[in-house]
Specification:
Elements: E1 7-11, E2 23-26, H1 29-40, E3 50-53, H2 56-68, E4 73-77, H3 80-88, E5 90-91, H4 98-103, E6 117-118, H5 119-128, H6 139-149, H7 152-160, H8 163-178, H9 182-208, H10 213-219, H11 222-228, H12 243-260, H13 267-276, H14 282-293, H15 301-310, H16 319-324, H17 345-366, H18 371-391, E7 415-421, H19 429-438, E8 442-450, H20 457-466, H21 476-486, E9 492-496, H22 499-504, E10 512-518, H23 520-526, H24 536-557, E11 565-570, E12 583-584, H25 588-594, E13 603-606, H26 615-618, E14 621-624, E15 633-638, E16 643-644, H27 660-663, E17 664-671, E18 681-685, E19 696-699, E20 703-711, E21 718-727, E22 730-735, E23 738-740, E24 745-754, E25 763-772, E26 775-788
Parallel strand pairs: 1-3, 1-4, 2-3, 5-6, 7-10, 7-11, 9-10, 12-16, 19-26
Antiparallel strand pairs: 8-17, 11-17, 13-15, 14-15, 18-20, 20-24, 21-23, 21-25, 22-24, 25-26
Amino acid sequence: MGNENQVSISYIGNLAHTPPDDVLLVENDGDYVRACHTLSHREKSDIGLKVWVRSKNHFAWLRDFTEQIDCSSKFEEKTPRLVLAEQWNVQIPEWLTDTDVLDFNLLDIPVDSQKQTDFENRLLIHLLGAAFQPDMLISAHLVDVIKALVSDEAKAAFKKYPVLRRCFETKCEQWAKRSSETWVKDICRQLPENSNEVWQWLSLWVGLHGYPEKLLEYVLAPEQVLLIRKVPPDVINDLPLESTAKEQMLTQIELLFKETWEQVTSSDMFRKVVRWTSGRLLKEYHFISSILRNNRFPPTEEDVQEVQTKFRYCPGVSENQLNALRYCVKPDRPTLLGLEEEWSSVEWIRWTAEEYVPYRTWQVHNGYYDEDLEQTVARFTDWYIAEYTSIHKDPDLSLTHCLRVLSSNRSENEFSIILLIDCLLLAFMDILDDALRNVGFSRHNLHYRFAALPTITEYNKAALLSGEWQEKTGSYEAILKTRANTDWGGKQVVYLSNLKSMLEMAAPQEATIVVLNFVDGDELLHSDVESKNITYEDELHRLFTRMAESVSKLSQEWSGPREQLSVYVVTDHGACRILEEEKRSFDSTVVNRLFANEKHRFSAVAEDQIDEIPENLWVLGHRFKRPFISENTVYFLPKGHNTVRQAGRVKGYIHGGVTPEEVIVPAAQYKLVKAAWKTLATRFLNLDQVRETGRAKFYIQRVVTLEVEIQNPNPSDVRVFRASIMSPETDLKSCETVVIPAGSVNTLQMNCYFKKAALGERSLEIEIAYEIAGNQHTLPLTLESEFRSAIASGFSLRDL
């Protein structure tokens, strides 16, 4: 009989409480009887049987029984080391004694013993984790090893099991011996006795490796500096920072920042400072962002992008804070309306969305007053009041008519969710757009509407929901039921007054219109959140994210087709923030009487009390009577940003006036399926063509203007953000971004300098990159061409 078939009977006393699965344990007379039964029915070819016996009597009885049945067996008394080796499936080192096994209760530890290994590995992996399993310490494992060593659990384990330190020393010797990296060997020699110190040193290296060398030398001894400088910084990027090291590095960084503050006067110097930083410390971010905001130099988009990239994963820095850095970059100044010039509604919308809102947002964040621009804003006020009646008769421009889309046949079987977001500014539409996209929605269109005057909820929300001008407004729920019967084919309408109601709502099983009246954003914008060191962007992101998640929950529960679920985003008005130069002072009694609501910029006066209004107040604005409604009220509507306020009052957003940001608001539609956008059409303008071949003719080493007219057949605007000459070799001297309005055309101009290498080429290849509804696309264009030299025969001065 081979060893693998032999019966092994071992006396273990009280050593092992959890023997291996393949061991038959005899603890009492009943176990003894079962063991005898198993031995007597065993064939000689059966796999070896292991029996562990706790009692000396049972051990002697089994010896007699095996002799009686002629069963060849091996009898031995197990030592703690032997039991541990068998129970853990390990090789026991010579330094581990039976006393160690018993004193530290190693036999009571329920380790995973499936694969054979050595004792040190088994104990390290069980108590400290899988980071100690590899036979070699490679760079990818160092952070996990440090994290495991300095944890509270590890400290408790080292205290409870002193043999664990000997195991760790053995492991470090193994790692050092097997590694070819000098820095790994050095770290392994330090870890057993100085694991916390190594963590501290490496933390300092993580935070200070990009800074001037002297900072590290102030906080570490020369031999420590020499040790950690060998460690590649990217190996420890994810290392948690040790608290003492963090304080030390913050002290050094703060002193350096104070020293260099006055020197940061250019983009080059600024980027140098950004490259110093670790990108992991909130204090670094505050210093860098304060430089951007202190007008020490004109920041560029590239400067901001470098900061955003560096601090993208910095604890305590939100994505919206990083996005808000764009307000440090001064946008191009909006076009100013000429004295004799007049713009149409389409031109005012384009100007507001593309030029004015980015610039005004920058003005507000930087407290920058632009007197000339304010004159154009005042001209908008004049124009809007003059054109008010005609604009609100136009169903494609008036906010009152923006929900007519629900009357179309296409929405007959649709589950429609209307997000009526009180006070949604164009400047914050991107935050909402991101929130909806993050839960799986795609934007299908974005339009701009003109809010009714005065720009407050009372005069806009009921009209928007009813689609009619309201003299006396009832409840929103009643208004919606009436409209459902008259305009929306009798569809079921559910009115939700808050987000909690939407969270608790079960998805309908039939075509339904759900209207959420979301006022949280309006309340937020009227408050002074910045005094709490919070940004409006951060808070709106939080609110819109919660709302989008609620919408997503409903959409997932909807059992109908995905393409028949739409989300409509509408609002009742915009809002503005007022700069100090735009505030107008009046006697406090006048202010209290006429402007009692500190959130509003207008005043409502009974017709028979008009004479009581000071003449110098009317100079600041317009007398306005609402058309379409019979009432005996005259409104004072301020021109531009003129705002009558008491000193020190309201620091948030206010509305009720006639600025572009209060009047022109977004209206969008989202779906769970992506929009099928139509391909843009293009044609080249003013080409010089070769008569015989029809090819376009260009001259090399001359600046040539290319004009490409782009037609947009889609219901959403298209923004061209980049155009490139792919072939032949060309210097693109200039190319301004353009917007092609929905269903319209615009011209892209490119000033090109074709290099000498273009001579003889037979085609011009252009790539136009554009964005529609937040999605980016490219449009390749090829033009059959000839490229000639200006000094060749046939050239005329007219060709220049």
